[in-house]
Amino acid sequence: MKKLNCIVFDLMSWHQGVAANCELMMEHADKPMVIPGVGEIVLTAEEQRGFRIGLILAMAWLGDITFKDMDESADPDKVSVDELAKDIFIRDVSERLFSRE
């Protein structure tokens, strides 16, 4: 169960970091950006619009991360990481397909 908790924690931390970076880039799209190996990039107003649209799409695809609560009576040592991953994937796909937003 410890390994599963670590996987869940790492996944949630990664997700939170990516979402925060997308929001930061959205907020500062009008500022010069420095990309290592490329240099400074300044986007025109039209490029900023496209950049922001791309970030909106990325954040929509990223979505929220939620996990199904395990039954209190379930044996935590018998929880399969594969089953948990499959449950998360199925729920995510269902939400994307049937969302009315």
What does this structure look like?
With 101 residues, this protein is mainly alpha-helical. The protein has one domain (2-98). It has helices spanning 2-27, 45-62, 81-98; strands at 33-35, 39-41. Strands 1-2 form a two-stranded antiparallel ribbon. Helix 1 (2-27) packs antiparallel against helix 2. The chain is elongated, with a radius of gyration of 19 Å. The two termini are 36 Å apart. The mean pLDDT is 79.
List the helices and strands and how they pair.
Layout: H1 2-27, E1 33-35, E2 39-41, H2 45-62, H3 81-98
Antiparallel strand pairs: 1-2
Protein name: Phage protein
Organism: Salmonella enterica
Brief summary:
The chain has 101 residues and is mainly alpha-helical. Helix content is 61%, strand content 6%.
Total of DSSP H or I helical runs spanning 4+ residues? 3
Strand content: 5-15%
CA radius of gyration is: 19 Å
* Largest β-sheet summary: 2 strands, antiparallel
Protein name: Phage protein
